[in-house]
Amino acid sequence: MNQIVSQSGQHAGGMKELISFRIGAQEFCVDIMAIREIRGWTAATALPQSPSFVKGVINLRGAVLPIVDLASRLGFESTEASDRNVIIVAQIGEQVVGLLVDAVSDILTITDDMIQPTPDVASETAKTFVRGLIPMEGRMISLIGLERVLPDMELEAA
User: Fold this and answer.
1) Is 148 left (phi over 0), alpha (psi -120 to 50) or beta?
2) What residues form DSSP beta bridges with 10?
3) What is the full DSSP assignment across 25-52?
């Protein structure tokens, strides 16, 4: 089935595509239009005085790419990176960032009405990152808003 995708990531008929990935036992997703590429883990060079969730930087075809440990940034235990991990290269505002995750799962095609609001019992920190929940095939997938992954001061500097 061929569908027409607009520049905003919206399909004709109100559909949108998300890329889902795992961090530990949990599944998350982000808008596929923010994703530039998916690549295997590459050892990162640590940066002094960087936030604890920044693993360091790698050289991506001549550009310096900061690597964010998404597990740590979302408040989970920090990821011990290995060859099994994946870096999702994403565009966040003007900044290109590598997001360290356990594995990429799927490409999901959804409609806006499939997204459930984040429950009121969630912490304010969770609500900062999680835009909504998508119940799908017996699993619950958290929709992440990438604009909150980098602290505001880093976005202003970018």
Assistant:
1) alpha
2) 16
3) TEEEEEEGGGEEEEEE--PPBP-TT--T
H or E, element range at 66:
strand 63-69
Of 53, 62, 5, the residue nearest 32 (C-alpha):
5
pLDDT tens per residue across span 36-79: 999 999 999 999 999 999 999 999 999 999 999 999 998 888 98
State the pTM of this model: 0.84
Closest CA to 102 of 37, 40, 36, 34: 40
Are 35 and 151 in contact by the 8 Å Cβ rule? The answer is no
Give 98-148 pLDDT, tens digit per residue.
999 999 999 999 999 999 988 776 566 667 888 999 999 899 999 999 988
- 134 close to 116: Cβ distance less than 8 angstroms: yes
Read out DSSP for 124-155?
HHHHHHEEEEEEETTEEEEEE-GGGTS-HHHH
Residue with tokens 């505002």: 93
